[in-house]
Write a structure and sequence with these properties.
The protein is about 25% helix and about 20% strand. It is α+β, with helices and mostly antiparallel strands. The chain has a domain of about 180 residues: Glucose Permease (Domain IIA) (Distorted Sandwich), CATH 2.70.70. Strand 9 and strand 10 form a beta hairpin. It is globular. It starts with a helix and ends in a 6-residue tail after the last helix. It binds zinc ion. The site of zinc ion has 4 residues, from strand 1. InterPro entries: Dup_hybrid_motif, M23ase_b-sheet_dom. It holds the Pfam family Peptidase_M23.
């Protein structure tokens, strides 16, 4: 009898809580998935010109502040071995695959929040041996794995690109590294094998190098990954930074 009363009381309490609009507190992983979803939505809104550059920037700042707040401060941030960089092309040496010998980086005029901003290239293109443009390494006859340059959480992916699409990034991956407080963007992949919200280690496979994206698909474009690094400043706004020195020193993973 007592237990039935307790049960009835609990049920009444939960009905009252529901009526008053109280809900249970989200777990950190649920919060993270919400923020990851917001990050993806901001990219879509920018691309489709649904928002002004100013409001996209404000939404980005709030989302990145939230993402940083739910990630625990990592012990591995202080551990150099765990923070080592891995060259994004498996089996390739930086000196033979970084486009233009590292001179391809042009940050001037870049604006992540303005879909019409053109002319900048705050990135490096890393090329594979693919003379016949079939996405396979010409010597190994295998796809080339895209490896995560550093550790972090996957914030967004696109896996839906089609040759008719006007979108330039093709199948892309965004990874946020809380130790560097920055974002890595990898574009033009043939495949993406990670999911938004997933934690990746440096050297973990993110996808395979490909030719997706409006220009990357054209015959004049040799097969490559476009890799960009954006450091967040004290206002959580993204500032392009040149990762060339890091790329040259990165560990190379064998086939
Ligand atoms: Zn590029």
């Amino acid at each position: 009898m007592i237990w039935r009363n307790v049960g009835n009381s609990l049920m009444a309490l939960s009905v009252i809580m529901a009526l008053m609009g109280w809900s249970r507190v989200e777990t950190p992983s649920e919060q993270m998935l919400n923020y990851v979803h917001q990050f993806q939505q901001i990219q879509i809104d920018i691309r489709e010109c649904n928002v002004s550059p100013d409001s996209a920037a404000r939404a980005f700042q709030a989302t990145m502040r939230n993402i940083q707040s739910v990630l625990p401060l990592l012990d591995s941030c202080r551990d150099d071995a765990a923070n080592r960089f891995v060259y994004p092309l498996r089996g390739y040496l930086p000196r033979y695959s970084i486009g233009g010998n590292g001179r391809g980086f042009r940050a001037k005029g870049f604006d992540l929040f303005d879909a019409d901003a053109r002319g900048s290239h705050p990135a490096h293109d890393l090329f594979i041996r693919d003379g016949n443009q079939d996405n396979l390494d010409d010597h190994m006859c295998l796809p080339v794995d895209l490896l995560s340059f550093s550790q972090g959480v996957v914030l967004a992916t696109d896996t839906t690109w089609q040759p008719e699409s006007e979108l330039r990034g093709g199948n892309f991956v965004w990874v946020y590294d809380p130790c560097l407080n920055g974002l890595f963007y990898y574009a033009h992949n043939s495949r993406v094998v990670v999911q938004p919200g997933q934690w990746v280690q440096s050297g973990q496979k993110l996808g395979e190098i490909g030719r997706t994206g409006l220009n990357a698909y054209k015959g004049r474009s040799p097969t490559h990954v476009h890799m960009m690094f954006l450091r967040l400043d004290s206002s959580y706004l993204p500032q392009p930074e040149n990762p060339l020195a890091w790329l040259r020193e990165a560990e190379v993973k064998e086939w």
